[in-house]
Structures are given as C-alpha cells and as structure tokens.
Specification:
Elements lengths: L1 H10 L1 H20 E7 L1 H10 L9 H17 L5 H11 L10 E5 L5 H8 L5 E6 L2 H10 L4 E4 L12 E7 L8 H10 L1 E14 L4 E7 L2 E9 H10 L2 E13 L7 E11 L3
Parallel strand pairs: 2-3, 2-5, 3-4, 5-6, 6-8
Antiparallel strand pairs: 1-7, 6-10, 7-8, 9-10
Length: 271
C-alpha cells in the first residue's frame, strides 16, 4: 500500500506539493494551538467573557518566543516563512512608496518580533508596537530597547486619530469578543492603510467561536464569516486593496463551504 501511495504521489507532483503544504500547516498549527472545542450561543458569550484576559498569562511570551526565535533564525538565512512573507508583501504592494519617514503600528505585537522581520526584509518603516499584555510588552522592550512599545487595549486605543501611516492588526482580533470595536480603532488611528493579518474566516457557514489552548493556555478564537467580515470593513470606512491566502480548505466538492486564513490589505476611503 505504501509503495502504491508513493507511486501515485510521484505521478502527480502537483498533488504531492499540496499535501506537503497541508502537512506543514498542520504541523505548525499543532505546535501552537490545540484542544479546540466549538462554542454555541450563550456558552460562547460566557467563555468569551471568562477568557477575555487569557493572553495576559505571564507564561505565554516565553513559550511563543521560543518558536518565533526559530522562525526568525530561518528567515534571516533566506528560508521562506509564509506568515512573514505575506506581511512583507502586504506592505510592498501598497500604492505609496515606502520610506523611512513612514510609521507602522502593530496592534497585538506580542514581543515585537515583526520589527525584526521588517529589518531583515529591509523595509524602512518606523515601527511601533502595542499589546494588552504587560508580560509581552516587557519582553518586547527587553528584546528591542530602541523601539517604542505600549500596553494598550485594542478596543480603546490611546493614540490620536491618524497617528500612523500603516496599522497592522497582528492576528489579535480573532481573540477579541468585541472585535468590531477593535476594527474601528484600527481604522481610526491609521492615516492611510490597515492590514488585518492572519485572519481566520469561513464561508457558507455562520461565524464560529472556539475555546482552545494556545501555547498551553486557554483562550477563545473566533472564525469570522467572510461576507460579514468584509461588510464590517466596508462600513468602517475601508476598501480592500489585496487579499492574501495563507491556508484554504473547501469542505465540499462545489466549494460552497470552507475555511481559510487570509490577510486583508485595506485603504481608508476618502470622505
């Protein structure tokens, strides 16, 4: 049987490439996230409230950083890391020429490692980071003492309107029950562009809430209905410039249902 499977894969290199990509994605995901439990109705709201501060667990920064340091080391040698590459491409695709006078705020910056991704990629932006976890911000300040980091609530940022040329929502709104407020705040503090990086979505299905473990700590994760999510961006005053897909899975032959992880590159509409 094994020989037959290998023969089939060798005969169809395209299929072999797809299966390798899926295995890589699942391998990385399993090292970060586990024990998914689907939440419904009142249970979802209750768990969202109970776990709203879960990412403030002091144990998380060290656990996440161990994985991040491995990825940064690989990335610095030219190895492709899809989540890094997509964010860099999302910035380079913007209509404006990127200069060192332009600023970028990352909301949900964790330990600020994307500042290093920008540096390795020679993207000359002034990087600022914020996160609602004191532990993450302390680690960010330790790792990058010359950069600016603040403890902030993504649903109620202290920055004035139009503070940054580019604002990246760094894979955090999926853990925020009041994510519409976070989207509005992301838009408010941006001068021109917003990037919603690594956003889990579903299509042909209602929005889905889960309880899971991230780096061993319990948290809530939201998978947005894509149509509703894009409508929220539109109503918040954002226009989609580009969409990048990091992972996608159709759940039926006709692709009427499925899930994906996407990065949405947006421009603020002119009023």
């Amino acid at each position: 049987m094994r020989k037959l499977i290998l023969f089939i894969l060798d005969s169809f290199p395209g299929l072999k490439h797809i299966l390798r990509g899926i295995r890589k994605h699942l391998s990385l995901s399993s090292s970060v996230s586990s024990d998914y439990v689907n939440l419904q109705g009142e249970e979802a709201l209750a768990e969202g409230k109970r776990l709203q501060n879960s990412w403030q667990d002091d144990a998380l920064p060290k656990r996440q950083r161990e994985l991040v340091d491995q990825q940064l080391k690989q990335f610095s040698t030219g190895v492709r890391i899809d989540v890094f590459d997509v964010l860099i491409e999302s910035i380079r695709v913007l209509p404006d020429v990127i200069t060192s006078d332009m600023s970028l705020l990352e909301i949900g910056c964790s330990s600020g490692f994307y500042s290093e991704v920008l540096q390795i990629s020679k993207v000359p932006l002034k990087y600022f980071g914020c996160d609602y976890s004191n532990a993450f911000i302390n680690l960010a300040r330790e790792k990058y003492p010359d950069l600016h980091f603040q403890v902030e609530d993504a649903t109620h940022l202290s920055y004035p309107d139009f503070s940054f040329d580019i604002v990246v929502s760094g894979c955090c709104i999926l853990h925020i029950p009041e994510y519409v407020k976070a989207i509005k705040e992301t838009t408010r503090v941006s001068k021109s562009y917003c990037i919603f990086h690594r956003t889990p979505i579903v299509w042909g299905q209602a929005e889905q809430w889960y309880r899971k473990k991230a780096y061993g700590c319990e948290t809530v994760e939201i998978h947005f209905n894509e149509t509703e999510f894009l409508d929220t961006l539109d109503k918040t005053g954002l226009e989609i410039l580009m969409t990048y897909t990091l992972h996608e899975e159709a759940l039926d032959f006709n692709r009427t249902r499925g899930n994906a992880i996407r990065t949405y590159v947006c421009k603020k509409k002119v009023k």
